[in-house]
Amino acid sequence: MEAFLKSIEAKAYRMALVGCSDPDDALDLVQDSMCRFVDKYASKPRDQWRPLFYTILNNRIKDLYRKRTVRNKWRMWFSPDQDRNQGDPIQAMPDHKAEDPEHAAKVGDAFGQLETALKTLPHRQRQVFLLRTWEEMSVKETALAMGCSEGSVKTHYSRAVHALRDKLGDHWP
């Protein structure tokens, strides 16, 4: 179980970060998803772990959206918007081990553009794209993780890819 969780933690964090745009919330989502997964599904067959874990993570991201929506409606009435995210100074530090700064800048810009484009996609298209592309899950595993049909996965994935191609045409190195 521990090896499985270690193998998915970085990808799960990245997916949660794209889903919620807050590093602290992303860590909380991944940790909570892992705890729930171990608590409820550790006894399931190993080949079902990945879709089950991503089902939990996907549901946690949806729950966070719902909570934010409710909070934002109340905040609008009681206080002006305040930016609480000033950025992490550790992440802003330059990487001195980068071999080719120009290539790293291009790749960093490309992934920045990809993250921005992913945030513009509808939630289900974004989740299907992340599960199929970044997690390399099959159509069947993705359908199981998202609780929808395989045809729905194919449709959402196709729409996501076409939308991303339209938005990222010149930005990918």
TrEMBL record:
Assigned keywords, A-Z: Nucleotidyltransferase, Sigma factor, Transcription, Transcription regulation, Transferase
EC number: 2.7.7.6
GO biological process terms, semicolon-separated: DNA-templated transcription initiation
Source taxon at top rank: Bacteria
InterPro entries cross-referenced by the UniProt entry: RNA_pol_sigma-70-like (IPR039425), RNA_pol_sigma-70_dom (IPR014284), RNA_pol_sigma70_r2 (IPR007627), RNA_pol_sigma70_r4_t2 (IPR013249), RNA_pol_sigma_r2 (IPR013325), RNA_pol_sigma_r3/r4-like (IPR013324), WH-like_DNA-bd_sf (IPR036388)
Transmembrane intervals: none
GO molecular function, one term: DNA binding
RNA polymerase sigma factor 70 region 4 type domain ranges (all copies): 113-161
EC class of the enzyme, as a word: transferase
A Pfam family matched in the record: Sigma70_r2
Stretches assigned to the RNA polymerase sigma-70 region domain: 3-69
PANTHER family: ECF SIGMA FACTOR, RNA POLYMERASE ECF-TYPE SIGMA FACTO
Family of the protein in this entry: Belongs to the sigma-70 factor family. ECF subfamily.
Name listed for the protein in its UniProt record: RNA polymerase sigma factor
Organism: Pseudodesulfovibrio cashew
